[in-house]
Amino acid sequence: MSHTPDLPERYVCESCHAVYAGTVVDSDGETHEFAAPDQCAACGSTAFVPIEQYIYDMKA
Ligand SMILES: [Zn+2]
Questions:
Q1: Is 4 domain-assigned?
Q2: Within a domain: residue 1?
Q3: How far is ligand 1, taken at its centre, from the CA of residue 14, in Å?
Q4: DSSP β-bridge partners for residue 23
Q5: CA distances for 34 relative to 1, 12, 40, 59, angstroms
Q6: What digits encode the pLDDT tens for the residues 1-57?
């Protein structure tokens, strides 16, 4: 019985840079996939980037 914490993917709003935890997409009850929110609660944008990509872009 494994008990590995399943950390959610995080997404950054491209417009206002708010950070959201990805919502769990229950694919088959076994694996968890994460998806960006449908819409930013702060600015209404629907454009999100994974936080890894966001950090990479900041360094570039
Ligand atoms: Zn936003």
A1: no
A2: no
A3: 7
A4: 35
A5: 23, 14, 16, 25
A6: 556 666 778 999 999 999 999 988 877 777 778 899 999 999 999 999 999 998 887
Q: pTM for the full model?
A: 0.72
Residue 32 in 3-state DSSP?
A: strand
Gap from CA of 22 to ligand 1 centroid (Å): 14
Residue 30: which domain range? Answer: 10-59
Distance from C-alpha of 37 to C-alpha of 19, rounded to nearest angstrom = 10
Residues near ion ligand 1 (Cβ under 5 Å): 13, 15-16, 18, 40, 42-43, 45
| Domain count of the fold of the chain | 1
Q: Is residue 2 part of a domain?
A: no
Residue 43, token pair as written in the block: 């600015």
